[in-house]
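User: Structure tokens for this complex, please. No commentary.
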Amino acid sequence: MALAALSTSTAQAPADTSRKSSPVALFLLLPGILYLVLFFLTPLVSLLLTSFKAPTEFGDFGQFSYAFRWENYADVIATYWPHIIRSFGYALAATFFALIISYPLAYFIGVKARRWPLLQSLALVMVIAPFFISFLLRTLAWKQIFSDESFLVTSLKAMSLLAPDAHVTGTAFSVIFGLTYNFIPFMTLPLYTTLERLDVRYLEAGSDLYASPFHVFRKVTIPLSMPGIVAGTLLTFIPAAGDYINASREFLGGTGTQMIGNVIEANFLVLQNFPAGAALSIILMSVILVFVSIYVKKSGTEELL
Amino acid sequence: MATGTFAESGADLELVGIHKRFPGFTAIEELNLIVPAGSFFALLGPSGCGKTTTLRLVAGLEAPTAGRILLGGKDVTNQKSFQRPVNTVFQSYALFPHMTVLENVAFGLRRRKMADPVEKAHEVLRLVELDHLASRRPQQLSGGQQQRVALARAIVNRPALLLLDEPLGALDLKLRRQMQLELKTIQEDVGLTFLHVTHDQEEAMTMADTIAVMNKGRIEQMGAPQELYELPRTSFVANFLGQSNLFTGPVVGTTSAGISVDVAGQKITVPVDRAHRTTGDITIGVRPEKLTLHRSKPSHDPRANVMGPGRVIDVSFSGVSTQYLVEVPGVGKLIVFAQNMTFGSEIREGDEVWLSWAIDHGFGLEDDPANAPRFSPDLDTRTIAAQHLLEEA
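Assistant:
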């Protein structure tokens, strides 16, 4: 269901025709199924098995053997619960801000700019253009802009808008800013695809039926663009919750802003505590799955999807 | 806008000197119109004549370039659409797909904070006989049912003025007839003012008290359906509202009763009070069903016009009547509708015939004959077909 929510198509699948199963259909599905088994199911099972591993007796550092050590989960939750909570808090905040920024942008491109196709495509290109530059470079550039000696920060300090000993990088603000910035295109594009097909005649009908522009927006535009909102928020929230670049100390984060992704990275690559890293990954995955299922159910977009 | 109360009755609609220009073309030019309260008024015209734009101006979905819109004597030109006591039944119905039928109908009531919106919505759904489908979604209904929901959604608000934008266009013929009668009944029951935009002349004539025929952003003629049909003022009206046989010629004589026109050597008379021009070259006409076919030259009758001889070039049988196409040398092709009073067609293709009609049935047009297109059945069907194609696109 969660995966179905990612598709922005409002067109209803012709249910009667697609239900037919035949050997040909199975045969055509075979490459896809094989691919999934090989590259999704196998690593998932492997990850699950690793998360229960116990350190090898008399083994070297970073050596583990198969076991059923469920305490791994209790351990990582006890140690890393602030990171887990912080991750979802940051991801929620970033999703919220990305939605607030992207919706007007997508509405402008998809509805207001319809009369000028050239402007529409130009604006779309501008949304996608940052993808041409590495995500790492762009985040580093923000680090420069937010660094203590930067023009922006020194000016803010000179105007006493920022305390003389304040920092911007390494704060929750800069991490949420970085997440929001990096995921705006993922929010804007699905919103654009639904808003682009929004029939303005519904808006006229709403206005004709005594609804003020605000009410038309709340009662007609928002519900009709719900598939885009759901798709966009999922495409932002899921990767943002597991992101480890923005929050890392080399980029916009600091020691106090570490997210679950940073901890997983550290456990796998630095501490070589593979079972802890695997357990954290499984926890991240399960929490997201639960979140998303509740969200899709609550938003009532199943029939619009 | 009256909040919390319904309009007591329909309101007069008055359009004063309305102009609407879009970049590159003028949709409406100097439109003056009064729709009396409680009437069923039809704006009739071909695609692109400005009738839908007029409707959108009244609904407040477009702003006029110049002119004023008055509703019940109150200037509403600068009011937004949601502030006007006007509701529209859209051509596309525009039913909200994310709401049930009931919520669609209750939408306007809720926005105006009416008491018991759900009860009122059920009531109006019972009126259009769709209450049993109240919990369905619009897309689960048939076209005819959707149309009735759209109508219910508009009339439940008891607007002072109800606008209908070709709402029956998507229905099949039988359903359309049924809906025409229902609409008329509802209009009489609730006493609202209806402004109905259509390109279907039959629909306009069956339903409306008053018809305004629009062409190229202007009103060509306005009046009761019968008046418009029997005494068209321009060749556009004569041909758009039904069909006409038109002849052009110089006036050769005037008496107190009628003026005589020389049409390719044949003297045709029209009553003075039915002619809009009385001197020079004029265009006169007669409706095809007023013509009588004769196998031999009819005896002279001072109360009838006679034309002929001509040759029947086409006969098409359509059940209640038969349509004949008669070629009269020097005059052109004439169209004749004859009731099928006997079995089969007595006159066949290639027969030589004379035509006659009562002088009282003729009419004289206001147009300058130089600009008046001569009636040509072939061209007309083609234009009609082209129009249908345009509408479908």
